Amino acid sequence: MASVILGILLVLAPLPLSTEAQTRSNLTLGSSLTANDRNSSWLSPLGEFAFGFRRMGRGAHLLAIWFEKIEDKTIVWSANGDNLAPEGSKVQLTANGGLVLTDPRERELWSSGLNGTGLAYAAMLDTGNFILVSASHVKLWDSFSRPTDTILPTQRLDLGTKVNARYSKMNYSTGRFHFMLGDDGNLVFYATPDPYDASDTYWRCNTLGRVFQLIFNQSGQVYLTTRNGTVLKLLTSSTVPTNGFYQRAILEYDGVFVQYIHPKMANSSSGWPMGWSTVSTPVPPNICTSITQEIGSGACGFNSYYTLGDDRRPRCQCPPGYTPLDSTNEMNGCIQDFVPQSCNGSRPETDQFVLREMLETTWDRSDYEHSTAQTEDWCREACLADCFCAAAIFSNGFCWKKKNPLSNGKMGPWVDGKALIKVRIHDTTSKCTKNDQKKNKNTTMMIIGSVLLSCSAFVNLLLLLITYLIYRSFRSRDSKLSRQVQINQVIGMRTFTYQELHEATYGFKEKLGRGSFGTVYKGALGFEDPDFVVVKVLATRTGESEKEFEREVSAIGQTNHKNLVQLLGFCNEGQHRLLVYEFMSNGTLADFLFCASRPSWYRRIEIVCDVARGLSYLHEDCSRHIIHCDIKPQNILLDGSLTAKISDLGLAKLLMANQTRTTTGVRGTRGYLAPEWFRNMPVSSKVDVYSFGILLVELICCRKNYEPKAEIEAQIVMADWVYDCYHNGSVLQLVESDEEASRDIKRVKRFVMTALWCIQEDPALRPTMKKITQMLEGAVEVPVPPVPSSFMSSI
């Protein structure tokens, strides 16, 4: 009886007037919008929602509906996430097809699919619903009936309706997670687009044959009802504020169903606080442990593992020796960044691998052999000796051998035991194997020499003479050519002619910036679906610029990491020296961080961790260690998904694997320079650690480190003020105007302590970037930092 009464109360919650009654903003047949820089749109009567084009990077547009009156214009529905529209595309209201999206060549990209139905007009409503209506005011089509990843108050989902998560945070194409209100009357969440068996289901409401609708009412409640309106199940844990707030519920890209609220204030920067989510209610309480697929990767992609963040959302990470498969989507899995162990019986390579330990970690379902009553040492030796073994799990005397790809990875206190990950001792990718190539070349020469020695003296002398003449011939020809051939042999990347790059940049027309060694232009490769690139034209061939060219090609050509800007190719033709990089659509971190609107705290967290991982890779994970020497916001670029990537390795100082320090002239930018630069001291990778510490301070406070116009004198040098606040126990002052950061004060304090370790005057006191990354991620405790000595008097 109580459930019936509750159902009546919920159904009687205030719903909007008939949508057909809202005609003040009706759109007539022939109305159209064009995808361009102005991002034109159709507004709802009160301007609450907009329908139109949203720019997704350079030259790509999404036809969408979004909240118009809040700062980030949050998207709630999209039409063409799997097929973005190029610049100049048009959406038009037509009598034959309804709403039709076409590209500049008038090829159809998407359509509402109405044919000969008597369409009269369309309207964008203040509920967030876009409708197509006939002359007799019959609703023919609406966006509420065809949701993407979001539902809104007053929206009702009927049987057979599916809600799909998007691919990643900034990619609105269809992702792997979805939930469906099935025709059998059951609400089920799936971990794959095409469910295969029961293990692909990670939550179900167990209302088989009883559910009729899922309703999101204006009181902020989401619930399931029967056909007569009886409430079967409340999906919300409580009501949320409604007056003066916007609401939305979304199936996030990581599979978590979350409801958010936002104050109804234009240009509010307070973000979307979480109202409730499936991670705080039994839907499910721990999504990670709820997904264990018999066939599939689990909550994260193959060869990765998940942990639960502070917000109880899954975080996917790669184990040692693995890197992300897709830098734009952490849930897409990882790949080995070293050559796997050979199964050649004559060359088992057991001495070339070690096992990296990961506590409270396991990978389910990918084992092919297990043993009982064994020791951990036995388990280690068994995996090292087995070329098929990619990892071993040891727990309470049990040893499980795992093979690639690893699936259903998880780390957390609910996991008993440890994982032992097999990695090559000298981690090298195909781009960092020059030493191996050199060894193979030397081996070949030794074989040739042995053959010569086995022949007669006359034949040997004759062959030596011929070899010498051939050598002189090639030496003479090489002296007439540029160094292009030499670089081609060393670096495995694309070479361009000067004419190709001249055409790609339309005659070097669009200048993006200028540095000390040349000018940067925007270009495009290809015609049908052009890939945008950045072309750096070095000023001259002689002097320092040529060294710069060789240094960048040599250094960047060997790197392969998601947090480094990728060098795609180069031109080394005559007097022309050009470098071709991937295009980073969101510009520099300096522009992003110091602009009028402050980036969210959680976005800044992701950026600082991205930079830390990139530097850790440069310092430790490539066979030739690289010191960047000029870490600053201007040299950190952001791609379309706001992933941070380190750029401009032109000032890098390369170190061999057995070299840790070098002496060189002052490089970099004042304000970010470590004190040893000015003391004629040998420098090491710790100069990058110091610069990173200053960058971390700027990211915490969203302000430049040196601000001479600061109203309070103590705040002119941000690093000094940060230490004063930490020493006085008033870290909250650093972020008091940042609501998100203020609510996350434990992490803020951890970041501040990490920054203070980074800017120690003594390089020996500064941690490595690998340790700093662990500090930032909370994997290790951050000890109390010592007082940083002032070195400004010596500069």
From TrEMBL:
Bulb-type lectin domain: residues covered: 24-145
Listed transmembrane segments: 445-471
Stated name of the protein: Receptor-like serine/threonine-protein kinase
Family note: Belongs to the protein kinase superfamily. Ser/Thr protein kinase family.
Reaction(s) the record says it catalyses: L-threonyl-[protein] + ATP = O-phospho-L-threonyl-[protein] + ADP + H(+); L-seryl-[protein] + ATP = O-phospho-L-seryl-[protein] + ADP + H(+)
Keyword Transmembrane: yes
EC numbers: 2.7.11.1
InterPro entries assigned to the protein according to its UniProt record, in alphabetical order: Bulb-type_lectin_dom, Bulb-type_lectin_dom_sf, G-type_lectin_kinases/EP1-like, Kinase-like_dom_sf, Prot_kinase_dom, Protein_kinase_ATP_BS, Ser/Thr_kinase_AS, SRK-like_kinase
Signal peptide as annotated in the record: 1-21
Source species: Eucalyptus globulus
Pfam families (UniProt xref): B_lectin, Pkinase
Lineage: superkingdom: Eukaryota
Gene3D superfamilies: Bulb-type lectin domain (2.90.10.10), Phosphorylase Kinase, domain 1 (3.30.200.20), Transferase(Phosphotransferase) domain 1 (1.10.510.10)
UniProt topology in membrane: Single-pass type I membrane protein
Domain Protein kinase: 506-780
Broadest EC class assigned to this enzyme: transferase
Keywords: ATP-binding, Disulfide bond, EGF-like domain, Glycoprotein, Kinase, Lectin, Membrane, Nucleotide-binding, Receptor, Serine/threonine-protein kinase, Signal, Transferase, Transmembrane, Transmembrane helix
GO cellular component, one term: membrane
Binding positions for ATP per the UniProt entry: K536
